[in-house]
Design a protein that fits this description.
Elements: H1 2-33, H2 40-44, H3 48-68, H4 72-92, H5 98-110, H6 115-118
Helix pairs in contact: 1-4, 1-5, 3-4
The structure holds magnesium ion.
Length: 121
């Protein structure tokens, strides 16, 4: 199983970086058109980034409801919303190299022990 996952990482991660950057830019473009780009006051507020994080939480909660309701299409939409909110958060935090951080973290996780030394979930 671990070899299969490693192979998937090697095949898809190089291409996924560009896709992630394109998604982030597209989300920024749509936010600009929709009036959701942050104002100077937003950027100066200590609550701006925490509010953006709360919006990620809200999408995660919506996914939980989708699972509880056994609504597969809704689950997929909410997973997409989570990614969209995360890309938006990255843009608002001026993070444009998240694919590299994801790749590094995957590689770090791959080196962890089986079930992380006895964890059950
Ligand atoms: Mg949603």
């Amino acid at each position: 199983m671990k070899d299969k996952i490693t192979q998937i990482h090697k095949e898809y991660i190089p291409n996924s970086k560009q896709v992630f950057w394109e998604f982030q830019k597209e989300i920024e473009r749509i936010n600009q058109l929709s009036g959701w780009l942050p104002t100077e006051a937003d950027l100066e507020s200590k609550w701006f980034i925490p509010a953006k994080i709360a919006l990620v939480h809200s999408e995660v909660s919506e996914l939980l409801e989708g699972v509880r309701n056994k609504d597969h299409d809704n689950q997929l939409e909410e997973i997409a919303d989570i990614f969209i909110r995360l890309f938006d958060l990255c843009s608002n935090m001026k993070i444009y190299d998240i694919p590299i951080w994801i790749e590094n973290k995957i590689q770090k996780n791959e080196k962890r022990s089986f079930k992380h030394d006895g964890k059950t979930v």
